[in-house]
């Protein structure tokens, strides 16, 4: 039996995110999701936007594996931080608080 890899954790967390966003009323009605022009931000759906997000996430993981310093972190922590970063890119949470703020400009 092999220990879970970063890709295994990434797939698991992305599937869990998709399920959470699809089936939870709190997530569907949250201002970040409701006011987002792209609709639901998902990773593992059969469409081009989801595939692009999935690919972006996996490319970040591939990049981080090259640095030996990442071994000091738990794999789940790395995946969660990359998901936080990529979701923040699409949701831009500070923009909801103040429309003049755009973190990714």
Which structural traits does this protein have?
single chain, 105 residues, mainly alpha, 6 helices, 64% helix
Write structural notes for this entry.
The protein is mainly α and 105 residues long. The radius of gyration is 15 Å and the shape is elongated. 8% of the residues are buried. It contains six helices and no strands. It has one domain.
Mean pLDDT: 83
**Domains (count):** 1
Figure out the total of helices: 6
| Basic shape | elongated
For the largest beta-sheet, the strand count, sense and barrel status come to:
none
Q: How much β-strand is present in the residues?
A: under 5%
Helix content: 55-70%
Radius of gyration: 15 Å
Unreliable segments (pLDDT under 50, ≥5 consecutive)? Answer: none
Q: What's the SSE pattern?
A: HHHHHH
**What separation lies between the terminal Cα atoms?**
45 Å
Structural class: mainly alpha
Count of DSSP strands: 0
């Amino acid at each position: 039996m092999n220990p879970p890899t970063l890709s295994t954790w990434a797939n698991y967390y992305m599937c869990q995110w998709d399920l959470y966003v699809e089936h939870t009323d709190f997530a569907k009605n949250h201002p970040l999701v409701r006011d987002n022009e792209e609709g639901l931000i998902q990773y593992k759906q059969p469409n081009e936007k989801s595939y692009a997000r999935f690919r972006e996430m996996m490319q970040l993981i591939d990049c981080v594996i090259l640095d030996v310093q990442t071994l000091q972190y738990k794999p789940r922590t790395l995946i969660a931080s990359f998901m936080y970063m990529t979701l923040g890119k699409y949701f831009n949470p500070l923009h909801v608080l103040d429309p003049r703020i755009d973190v990714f400009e």
